[in-house]
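Page 37, continued from 36.
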């Protein structure tokens, strides 16, 4: 019985952050290799997160896990609808939200967004596209300010062209894993 109590204490304090970080790294590797995060991984992660929250924190933890799942999904769903990321990325944040709960899911979203922005800048510099994208962004902003239509030409919103839909760019699973690793480090180093 004391082993069970010790395992439960580890899971509640440390494992609740280390395990989803390891899963996020697994998601990132898969996203880098195949440009997809499979459903079995996101659904299994969500189910495991909710089970751990119920086991370690009771019904209150389960409720917080569901809130984290819903908020994680909601935070990225608009980006998915706009074509800015894939459905796997949305489901991955929701699944990790089940482990983290509402408050920490919001922090993960922030850290993931910062990592994603940095990775995007690095990628654009590496591809030699940073100046082109900045010019396109400036043109789009000027067109928007002047209330001109945003057709498919130079005034089109950045990242809405065919190149954005072909899967080019940064696999966001990497940004998610970096954000999760930073959150894990931050929580466990207290």
């Amino acid at each position: 019985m004391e082993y069970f109590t010790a395992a439960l204490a580890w899971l509640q304090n440390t494992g609740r952050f280390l395990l989803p970080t390891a899963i996020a790294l697994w998601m990132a590797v898969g996203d880098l290799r195949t440009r997809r995060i499979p459903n079995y991984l996101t659904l299994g992660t969500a189910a495991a997160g909710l089970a751990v929250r119920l086991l370690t924190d009771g019904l209150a933890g389960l409720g917080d896990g569901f809130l984290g799942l819903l908020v994680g999904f909601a935070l990225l769903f608009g980006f998915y609808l706009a074509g800015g990321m894939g459905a796997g990325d949305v489901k991955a944040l929701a699944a990790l939200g089940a482990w983290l709960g509402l408050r920490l899911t919001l922090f993960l979203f922030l850290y993931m967004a910062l990592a994603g922005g940095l990775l995007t800048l690095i990628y654009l510099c590496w591809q030699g596209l940073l100046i082109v994208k900045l010019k396109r962004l400036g043109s789009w902003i000027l067109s928007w300010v002047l209330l001109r239509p945003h057709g498919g030409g130079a005034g089109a919103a950045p990242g809405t062209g065919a190149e954005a839909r072909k899967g080019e760019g940064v696999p966001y699973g990497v940004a998610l894993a970096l954000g999760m690793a930073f959150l894990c480090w931050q929580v466990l180093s207290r």
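The first helix runs from residue 2 to 34. Flag for discussion at group meeting. The mean pLDDT is 88.
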